[in-house]
């Protein structure tokens, strides 16, 4: 059964393992740990297995900003990213929710589109030659 819950510190190693599977290292371990401690990390589960996670904060002009949505490669295209986004929209501490992805990340752009987010701007010069597209959705 699929469900989404807030992560707790006991989930840290599993979440870091999923992140490492995607990016190839554990460099974001401290960031993930702090997000869990702050209550800003939610996890998608299939039965008792963690298959993905979402991290957010409210430091983007006092709006919610989804900084990471990661689903394990073996569980992609099964609706987990959408499940995490739906949960975030229903529990967001602010009415405005933003996120972003690189122009080259077509699959994430499709996830945003399918979940009712729309493009709200572009930031150049973060990744050379691959602008960041900002997405927005309102809870209202």
Automatic annotation (TrEMBL):
The keyword Signal does not apply. PROSITE patterns: GNAT. InterPro entries: Acyl_CoA_acyltransferase, GNAT_dom. Keywords: Transferase. Coiled coil: none annotated. It comes from the Bacteria. Residues 2-140 form the N-acetyltransferase domain. This is Acetyltransferase. The keyword Transcription does not apply. One of its GO terms (molecular function) is acyltransferase activity, transferring groups other than amino-acyl groups.
